[in-house]
UniProtKB/TrEMBL annotation:
Pfam families according to UniProt: LapA_dom
Regions that span the bilayer: 36-60
Coiled coil: 61-95
Species of origin: Asaia siamensis
Official protein name in the record: Lipopolysaccharide assembly protein A domain-containing protein
Residues in Lipopolysaccharide assembly protein A domain copies: 32-82
Length: 113
């Protein structure tokens, strides 16, 4: 929600600046020149920066999701190892003392991927 508020404020400032500066100016880079409104130039630079920031955030999110998937796989592997170890302990306990009840795994809810 805070991100959306920051984005809206940023866009309102850019659009207000673009609307208050409609006069075309002569702009040039090296040997290329054109007539362009300063407000539209600022709006274009702001939009390009916004898209670049979104792309960088997307790359970071991909890395985070990959790390989360690996961690979930490791948790599943460790849970199966714990269950296997409890079953081994039960077999050894029942073999040495038949009056003891075997271990029952607690009911767990599956983790949504």
């Amino acid at each position: 929600m805070v991100r959306l508020l920051v984005i809206v404020v940023f866009l309102v400032v850019l659009i207000t600046f673009a609307l208050s500066n409609p006069d075309p100016q002569s702009l040039w880079v090296v040997s290329y020149g054109w007539q362009f409104s300063v407000g539209m130039l600022v709006l274009g630079v702001g939009a390009a920066s916004f898209l670049l920031g979104g792309f960088v955030m997307f790359i970071g999110e991909i890395k985070q999701r990959s790390r989360a998937r690996k961690a979930e796989q490791q948790v599943r592997a460790l849970e199966s190892q714990v269950l296997d170890l409890h079953q081994r302990i039960d077999r050894l306990t029942v073999a040495t003392d038949p009056s003891r009840a075997p271990y029952e795994a607690p009911a767990t809810t599956p983790v949504a991927p």
